[in-house]
TrEMBL record, chain A:
It comes from the Eukaryota. Belongs to the somatotropin/prolactin family. This is Somatolactin alpha. Gene3D superfamilies: 1.20.1250.10. GO terms for molecular function: growth hormone activity; growth hormone receptor binding.
Automatic annotation (TrEMBL), chain B:
Residues 1-22 form the signal peptide. The gene is PRLR. It is found in: Membrane. One of its GO terms (cellular component) is external side of plasma membrane. Residues 324-347, 360-425 are annotated as: Disordered. It comes from Cyprinus carpio carpio. Belongs to the type I cytokine receptor family. Type 1 subfamily. This is a receptor for the anterior pituitary hormone prolactin. This is Prolactin receptor.
């Protein structure tokens, strides 16, 4: 009887194995028309380049958004109030080292995971930022567009990183941002005070800019670590 | 209490004294910039605000964004005066540094404004190194290959920092630099540089997010002297076109005459007889103009010698027939009407003779008979003669003096009772038919040479229903013998009427035809367009040989005439022989190349 149950359980597991695998396969490829097609393979090098381009663009746009917000809402004397009074960037599940030597000691795997984590940690705050920015009376359209664009690009970046992880590290990761849920709650509150909300939003933008820079740096480090073709020797 | 008060007063006095001496606490320093060359270390510089006259020390303090711990600058020397150098251990990335500088001297201290710095945003690399520019010779043309090295401190190999390069080129004398972006590579090929010129090259770099470095020292490169492909192509094209132009010019030169004919069709130039172009070219103007000078021209006094060129007749009762003829008697000549000799009137009607009536002449000349030449074509002075060019033996004119008269129809100047009506060269002659009849009637001569054939259109119109034979009719009608009595059909009418001389038969008879004759030939006939006759030559006997033009239209006339009157000359091409008037000057007639006769020579001097 026990043997029979074990056998059944095992059979169930075996039959459900593809489901787990499919659950682990992150994406379906879609062509322009939207229909699902066989994914054409892309080389790892090219994929990495594309991911890096994404990260560069995101950083550039976040920098521009910051400047726009500063010019619009932050009078000059308050520039010094950045990151003061407890407005800090939200903490991450694990700390990222801040010096070159330390960072260069991080393995590829951790580099990728760090990037992924960074990307995933900003998804919610960006959406929140869009809503708050739209509530301002005279928020420039460029700012709103950029914010929206960035959050879209972040999604693509996440997908790219996941593919990279799968390719480079041969591991599948469940796309779940559950670990970040608890950090996002503060952003659901709406502060009644205008200055505070402005400062908080400003802080958000600054923090996002930093994290975008981090992502870019990590990815570029990762690129030069690829041994094939000695990629960064000539640079 | 007293001690504290004394201390205070003393301090106050000391401050006053010091202030009087010009010393004060230091001025506020200012952080000018912080830079990181490789994203691993960074340096901050400040400028002092004024030391207040006392030795001042500066200290830099900082704290990180999420801690309150204040640290002092670890290294004041490495980066020079008024600077603070943060080494690798003290540098944290993606963290804001809050930096202040404090200046302090004996009297006090002063704190600068704080500055927030994040290291990753203040990256400015060092300049690139080992810039080389080499001329590379290529089949397309030489170009310059510029190459350099990355700054030593930048760690691009691990990908920690990514550098983008830029170079600029110019000649010594240019104002503007030409900039090129080289991306991440460490070389660049510069094309389109001018040959035989020296160029200056500089390079700088920038991290992907950061500041541009300074430009390197200038590197000089000299381009070799070469001919660009483009220029050599233009040279070849130019040579080719020059060649083509030369060939065309030479061809045109060779064929210059035919080209001239093609472009500029020949215009018959005026030909002045006696005007020698060669003489003119040689420059002897006197000789040239002497040929133009005709002795005795214009006629001034001697009216007798005036060559009558035309006879003008007015169809007007008031006007008299005026005869302006040299062949007339002298009296007649003198009575020439004051009206115009050369009125031009006659030129409008090319077929007619102009007779100027001369009363005296009429009386004096008596029964002169008139010959009028008639032409089918407007050769007003031709008379038909015998075939030979010799003067007719039987012609009475030859017996008389052979003056050279232009188209003189009536040759004889003798005092025969003839009316000589020389036909002028330029004017057709009109004459009044009845008058002439009157003239003729009393002078019916036995001479066969002078006959007047005329028609009185008013009465004879119906007679000449046959156009072909009207000449003969008229001729036949008015026979020599019948002159005495006017033809029955002819009534001398008082009215004046123009007649047209149609032809002159060999017997020196004028065949007349009234102008209003409906049967006369249409004016538009081609035969009747010329007023002049060409002089073919002048014989030694002072006979003008006129040339009769061959024209097809006129052949008919003559042929008709031939059929009608046997006395007409058989061939229309015979040159007419005219006896010239003896009154003509004896000098030779100059015949121009195209057959024109120089009338000026013939003009007698007065």
């Amino acid at each position: 009887m026990n043997r029979l149950k074990v056998l059944q359980a095992w059979l169930w597991c075996v039959s459900l194995w593809p489901c787990w695998l499919s659950h682990a396969v992150p994406l379906d490829c879609k062509d322009e028309t939207g229909s699902l097609t066989q994914c054409t393979s892309i080389s790892q090098e090219k994929l990495l380049d594309r991911v890096i381009q994404h990260a560069e663009l995101i950083y550039r746009v976040s920098e521009e958004s910051c400047t726009l917000f500063e010019d619009m809402f932050i009078p000059y004397p308050l520039h010094a109030l950045r990151n003061q009074g407890g407005n800090l960037c939200h903490t991450k599940p694990f700390p990222i080292p801040g010096s070159k030597s330390e960072i260069q000691q991080i393995s590829d795997k951790w580099l990728l995971h760090s990037v992924l984590m960074l990307v995933q940690s900003w998804m919610e705050p960006l959406i929140y930022l869009q809503t708050t920015l739209s509530r301002y009376d005279d928020a420039p359209d460029a700012l709103l567009n950029k914010t929206k664009w960035v959050s879209d690009k972040l999604l693509s970046l996440e997908q790219g990183v996941l593919v990279l992880i799968r390719k480079m590290l041969d591991e599948g990761i469940l796309t779940s941002s559950s670990i970040f849920e608890h950090t996002l709650t503060p952003y659901n509150e709406q502060s009644p005070e205008v200055l505070e909300s402005i400062l908080r939003d400003y802080n958000l933008l600054i923090c996002f800019k930093k994290d975008a820079h981090k992502m870019e740096t990590f990815l570029k480090l990762l690129k030069c670590r690829q041994s094939n073709k000695l990629s960064c020797l000539s640079y | 209490m007293r001690n504290s008060g004394a201390v205070l007063i003393l301090t106050f006095i000391a401050i006053l004294t010091l202030q009087a001496a010009g010393v004060s606490p230091p001025g506020k320093p200012r952080l000018t910039s912080c830079r990181s060359p490789e994203k691993e270390t960074f340096t901050c510089w400040w400028e002092p605000g004024g030391d207040g006259g006392l030795p001042t020390t500066y200290a830099l303090y900082y704290h990180l964004e999420n801690s309150e711990t204040v640290y002092e600058c670890p290294d004041y020397r490495t980066a020079g005066e008024n600077s603070c150098f943060f080494n690798k251990n003290d540098t944290s990335l993606w963290v804001n540094y809050n930096i202040t500088v404090v200046a302090s001297n004996a009297l006090g201290k002063n704190i600068s404004d704080p500055v927030e710095v994040d290291v990753v945003y203040i990256v400015q690399p060092n300049t690139p190194e080992h810039v080389t520019a080499v001329v590379v010779h290529d089949e397309q043309g030489p170009f310059v290959r510029v190459s350099w090295e990355k700054p030593r401190t930048a760690d691009t190999r691990s990908g920690w920092i990514t550098l983008l390069y830029q170079l600029r080129v110019k000649q010594e004398k240019d104002k503007e630099w030409e900039e090129y972006n080289a991306g991440m590579q460490k070389y660049y090929n510069v094309f389109s540089l001018h040959p035989d010129k020296e160029y200056m090259v500089q390079v700088r770099c920038k991290p992907d997010h950061g500041f541009w470095s300074e430009w390197t020292q200038t590197t000089y490169v000299k381009m070799p002297d070469y001919i660009t492909r483009e220029r050599s192509l233009w040279i070849m094209i130019t040579i080719f076109f020059v060649f083509i132009v030369v060939i065309l010019t030479w061809t045109l030169n060779v064929k210059r005459n035919s080209v001239k004919l093609c472009l500029l069709p020949a215009v018959p130039g005026p030909k002045i007889k006696g005007f020698d172009k060669q003489l003119l070219k040689s420059g002897k103007s006197e000789e040239v103009f002497n040929t133009l000078v005709i002795q005795g021209f214009p006629p001034t006094t001697d009216y007798d010698n005036l060559l009558v060129e035309y006879l003008e007749v007015y169809d007007n009762e008031e006007q008299e027939l005026v005869q302006d003829g040299k062949d007339l008697s002298e009296d007649c000549m003198k009575s020439k009407s004051p009206s115009d000799i050369d009125s031009g009137r006659g030129s409008c009607d090319s077929h007619t003779l102009l007779l100027e009536k001369c009363m005296d002449g009429r009386e004096g000349s008596g029964s002169n008979q008139h010959q009028y030449s008639q032409h089918g074509e407007t050769r007003w002075a031709s008379t038909e003669s015998s075939e030979s060019q010799d003067p007719e033996p039987g012609s009475p004119e030859s017996a008389n003096g052979r003056g050279k008269t232009w188209p003189v129809v009536f040759p004889s100047p003798q005092p025969q009772p003839h009316h000589h009506y020389p036909v002028g060269a330029a004017k057709p002659a009109y004459h009044s038919v009845p008058e002439i009849l009157n003239h003729l009637s009393p002078h019916a001569m036995s001479s066969n040479y002078h006959q007047l054939n005329h028609q009185d259109i008013l009465q004879q119109e119906r007679r000449f229903s046959k156009p072909a034979c009207r000449h003969s009719q008229s001729y036949n009608q008015f026979n020599l013998d019948g002159i005495d009595t006017p033809a029955p059909g002819v009534a001398p009418s008082p009215s004046l009427e123009y007649v047209e001389v149609q032809r002159v038969n060999p017997e020196n008879m004028l065949l007349l035809r009234p102008l209003s004759d409906p049967n006369r030939e249409p004016e538009g006939s081609d035969c009747t367009r010329e007023d002049y006759s060409k002089v073919k030559e002048v014989t030694s006997n002072n006979i003008l040989l006129l040339q009769r033009d061959m024209s097809h239209q006129c052949v008919d006339d003559y042929s008709q005439a031939d059929q009608c009157t046997t006395q007409q000359p058989p061939h229309p091409c015979k040159p007419a022989v005219h006896q010239s008037n003896s009154g003509m000057p004896q000098e030779a007639i100059r015949v121009m190349g195209n057959g024109y006769v120089d009338s000026t020579v013939l003009m007698p001097s007065y």
